[in-house]
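QUALITY CONTROL LOG
STEP: pairwise intake check
CHECKER ROLE: data steward
CRITERIA: each record must contain a sequence immediately followed by its structure tokens, with no blank fields

ENTRY 1 OF 2
RESULT FIELD BELOW
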Amino acid sequence: MSKETRFTGTDTYVASDDLMASVEVATKLQKPLLIKGEPGTGKTMLAEAVAKSLDMELLIWNIKSTTKAQDGLYIYDTIQRLYDSQFGNAGVDDIAKYIKLGKLGEAFLADEQVVLLIDEIDKADLEFPNDLLWELDKMEFYIPETGETIKAKHRPIVIITSNAEKELPSAFLRRCIFHYISFPDRAQMEEIVRVHFDQLDESLLQQTLEAFYRIREMDDIEKKPSTSELVDWIHALMLSGIPQEEILQKLPFAGVLLKKDRDLEVLHHHLDN
């Protein structure tokens, strides 16, 4: 069976026409696809869906505040080499033994094209994206410890996510295809929720959506609930067997939707009034 060559969503991921077009353009132009959007809009799940749809392996590079660009290329384990030299272990002069490829390096040397997710790039230092410009442009990097140049066997499909916590450098942005995932409207959310449940009572669905968007519209809610929290809330309501007429009145299990004490207090204040 031949592989799909165009992303059209999956049975578990609902993608808009604009998003599918952005994936297509980024793939054809061989540029990284930068996805921005608030938490819970399915940015990370997009990479999983693209890999599944195109029948490719997914490699994930999770970015933290301490992550450096070289971490994604390779790591030279000097501590292990020093330890081996102290105990007279054989092969200590073979530096290549102590080179471990990072996720970008793994993607370059994969025998088949893969999808590489660089997740939450805005968590890193401001210069982090610029430090990857050469590698993402040329699809190669140099390891001075061994004198080896690692070149990509197949150009990976690179998907980069950002929660827009900070602005990314202009030089980096120019090299990306950009797509902003807006939070789903009620009709889109209904379609997304149905993907997660084989059988869902229509009344329960409509009441939970009504309550969910009512909460999101409250200006004084600091951390608004996301798609995953809505799905978890529906699961909780289905398992509990709570009468549906109480959903809009009492909003049971509100702690599944809201994760901050102050937001729960705000919600209870609205319910009391």
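ENTRY 2 OF 2
RESULT FIELD BELOW
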Amino acid sequence: MKKDLQKKLVRYSSAAGAVVAAVGSTNAQVIYTDVDPDFVNASGTVQIGLDMDGDATFEFAISATDTLVNGTQYGILSVVPVDAALSAIGGEAPSGYNYALALDLGMMVDASVNWVAAANTMSYEVDGAFPFGENWNGVTDKYLALRFTNSGNTHYGWARLDGGGDSFTLKDHAFDATPDAGIETGDMGNVGVEDANIESMIHFVNQPNNSVKIVINGELSNGEITVVSTSGAIISTQQVNDNVAFVDMDGLAAGLYMINVKSTEGSITKKMFVK
């Protein structure tokens, strides 16, 4: 079942793969992904995959369904863990049906959330009305609470959406790479004005054999390059002493790593998957 869903999501995510271009940033261990431009499903049936940690495997699927049955129009929005043994969604079941929570900004996502390792309805629209009181009926800038496991470690995260019926807009998502650490909804790490400035200065160029060339346009004050695993372990650190630097990741275990360049001017991170 989960393999079939992964295949479907890869197919559906040809558009999602273009828009979910990860722009990562780390502050402590928060890994933030901006969906730029936002993924918008104005109406109709679509199913996209949500890859929280950039390891090319979808942890969650967001599904919108638009269907006409005996003259009645249904619009249904739901979120599903691709592998229920590894992922779960913050939810509730007030009447025996799983409803995904729609959290406000600044709420904690951690072990205290009620976790549901099954499909959660977000919104259920019937002929333009919402008769069942789900949490995502016509909302703006609300947050899904998400939990997933990577390499045996549990991580908590969020995804920000607008939603209602079979329409939704996916805007961004983040998780804390420190195992078992909670994260507040809306926490983007240190993404800010300074990071936007440094982004124009730093260019990452993939090289053969799992290495990356970093080109620096301008001068960085107290520049430092750090490679971090998704478990939070620091793999290597080097000072920026020139306008070109190389990060050799050949020989590392296969998986996702973050290459963080930080300086007085700000910080920027590239996600790198070692095969």
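INTAKE CHECK: passed for both entries
DESCRIPTIVE NOTE, ENTRY 2: Helices lie at 2-19, 193-199.
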